[in-house]
UniProtKB/TrEMBL annotation:
Keyword check for Coiled coil: no
Protein name as annotated: ABC transporter aliphatic sulfonate-binding protein
Limits of the Solute-binding protein family 3/N-terminal domain: 41-262
Coiled coil start-end: none
Highest rank taxon of the organism: Bacteria
SMART domains for this protein: PBPb (SM00062)
Length: 330
């Protein structure tokens, strides 16, 4: 999940982080030189119901710089957009990071998000005869390329004594995957986010196997390295990240409000959204990255190398930047 439907995605704060974040002052136009910050425009990637929804809802969208939101539904597309200098800030999981590093993409990781791994699963049509993952041998399975879905599909196959060669894997985008599953052209779909409770709730699909215990729960916030040398840009990005962290902290303490705010945006009933928020296995917490994050991401890289989806072991640490470390409050 991406962040992320994601869920960066798709991904809340614990009480300890809450106290430090809520007491940490946000950067203000006065402390950051109003004229300098006012000249900055941040092009920010947001998943539906995420940044562009929760920041205004928590009263934290009074930025002393300009923010332009664009909506994405997978972290790999966000990384590609930053590489193309079309986006300045966005989030993704460890899986896009593996391909970012391997391709030498022009992207820098500036912060880590610890988040939930719920709502990541293999789903099947409600009337499917499949009762275990092994039942999917020789079946058609959709997945979202270079995302958490791609990664946990490989692990679930291995657990069942299978490989990608034992099924027909079909790379699809989020909307295409949903259409294919509902039309009966897929036997299963590896996916993430609110689409899972949506299709389970309407009775069209059921969860065959959850990826909750496969994924690490580490997600990353990336920034455009072309602009990182600019001090005003760094201050604006750090302020944005600190605001996002505070928004998650506030909403974690009021999940009913969280559900009410995002329900009409993602077009899922409020009761289902609230149930999903309450079921998340860990909160979102934004913090500076550490060496453990790199080691965890390396495990993901090694999985894709074993599958011959990445040819050589990249230098992961070169993707991580300390430029914002002194400015982050997590």
């Amino acid at each position: 999940m991406t962040f992320f439907t994601g869920r960066l995605s798709r991904r809340r704060f614990g009480l300890g982080a809450l106290s430090s974040l809520c007491s940490a002052p946000l950067l203000t136009s006065r402390s950051l030189h109003a004229e300098e910050l006012a000249s900055v425009t941040l092009r920010v990637a947001s998943f539906r119901g995420m940044d562009s929804t929760i920041l205004p809802a928590t009263g934290l969208a009074d930025f002393p710089y300009k923010v332009e939101f664009s909506e994405f539904n997978s972290g790999n597309l966000i990384a590609q957009a930053i590489n193309a200098d079309a986006i300045d800030v966005g989030g993704w999981s460890e899986i896009p990071l593996a391909f970012i590093a391997a391709s030498g993409a022009r992207v820098k990781v500036v912060a880590t998000v610890d988040g939930p791994t719920t709502d990541q699963a293999i789903i099947v049509p409600a009337n499917s005869p499949a009762r275990s993952f092994a039942d999917l041998k020789n079946r058609k399975i959709g997945y979202i390329r270079s995302t958490t879905a791609h990664y946990f599909l490989i692990h679930m196959l291995a657990k069942a004594g299978l490989t990608l060669a034992d099924v027909t894997p079909v790379p699809l985008g989020m909307s295409q995957g949903l259409t294919a599953l509902k039309s009966g052209s897929l036997d299963a779909w590896a996916t993430y986010g609110y689409v899972i409770p949506m299709v389970v709730g309407d009775g069209s699909a059921r969860v065959l196997e959850s990826a909750e215990n496969i994924l690490s729960g580490h997600y990353f916030i990336g920034a455009n390295p072309v602009r990182l040398p600019d001090p005003a840009f760094r201050l604006a990005v750090a302020d944005y990240i600190n605001r996002l962290g505070k928004a998650y902290a506030l909403l974690t303490q009021n999940k009913k409000k969280w559900a009410k705010v995002i329900s009409p945006v993602i077009q899922i009933p409020e009761t289902i959204v609230l149930s999903d928020l309450n079921a998340q296995n860990r909160p979102y917490r934004i913090r500076p990255w550490n060496e453990g994050d790199i080691r965890s991401a390396q495990n993901v890289v090694d999985t894709f190398i074993e599958q011959r989806l990445i040819s050589t072991r990249p230098d992961l640490k070169s993707v991580f930047s300390n430029d914002l470390r002194p400015l982050l409050k997590g």
